[in-house]
Amino acid sequence: MLSNDAEARLKEFNDTAFPKEMITITDRVRIAVGWGHSNCIIVEGDTSLILIDTLDSDARAARLKDELSRLTDKPVKTIIFTHGHPDHRGGCGAFRDTVEEIIAFAPKKAVLKGTERINPILNKRTFRQFGYGLSDEELITQGLGIREGHAIGDGVYSFLPPTTLYTEDSVKRTIDGVAFEMVSAVGETDDQIFLWLPEEQIMCCGDNYYGCWPNLYAIRGGQYRDIAAWVDSLEHIMSYPAEALLPGHMLPVLGHDRITEVLGNFKEAIRCILDETLACISQGLSQDETAARVVLPETYRCLPYLQEYYGTVQWSVRAIYQGYVGWFDGNPSNLNRTAPEKYSRNLIKLAGGEQAISAAVKTALEESEFQWASELCDLLLGAGETVSEEGKTNARHWKAESLRQLARLETSANGRHYYLSCAKELEKE
């Protein structure tokens, strides 16, 4: 979402959303917030510690391990992953000397065959989304937590493979005297689970809830995240009488009434976007028309835990649209679109040539129409030999400036990073 106060809002969010704390929830359960990009939940068993996720790097997990040794002499013998994202598993290797079992759930839907063939571009887009090439000043915040360790020289990913991989929908176990119910909960990932500790009345929800608008779609790319299933998972989580909700990122939510309020609003806001998007599709609206029409009702838009600091509503709408009906919007003109280079050449010719487009870009920049300026630059950059080398050089410079200005207006950390990363790439060409 673009907003004139985006940078100030992101700075405030970064300063308050994930302070470094070791928070005691009950005599048995603590949560380490701000020790890494993600949280680590520590459960004390009769003779050992059970970790739910392990932070994002070996160095950070080693510091956590040292802290735990000051609290208890019980070793870490069990690790449970809420899902497979590397920022939740990257510190696992720090516990290799004592861990005896590592538990995970298999994805409910397999990754598309051949995905490994596009990993280079997915990795490039991931680099942009998370701002790995940006300075701390440029980045402001990585969104869900402090910057990942591997991005700033604070350790590396250190993975250990699961020793127990469940395919069931739900598993109940007692681990070192602590009762757990582990439940498959498709949402941000297809291997996502939540963990219910009945004796403690604690719900560990992984990344299906955190305190801002979620990545219903990640701009780095990936398979469609089933939003309807995500809503169902949130309803399932809410069916438990939790007194503490411990998310995979940011601060816990405490008290049953508060959990019901927060999760209820979070769930209904997502359901609202899904329902409104499907309504627009059923009316025959295009993806662009739908993305422009669907907005969060004010009831949800003002809530602090639904601000667009990570994902955005518009990206969510576009993902839902494509997830349900694919790329074709029903307009026959789009069945066989003019090839991009020819399209750019034709529009430049129609507008009066390269100089006319260049003048329009300058005007757009002067009038703070940064999105329009960027789109006009794309015409110049996409028209092949029709545009002079000087014109393309100017267009790269203007587009980089447009992206930097858009970054200043973007409330989503991911969007900000993508704008700035691409601006840097253009300046190097």
UniProtKB/TrEMBL annotation:
One of its GO terms (biological process) is dodecyl sulfate metabolic process. Residues 37-249 form the Metallo-beta-lactamase domain. GO terms for molecular function: linear primary-alkylsulfatase activity; protein dimerization activity. Signal peptide: none annotated. It comes from the Bacteria. This is Metallo-beta-lactamase superfamily protein. It comes from Hungatella effluvii.
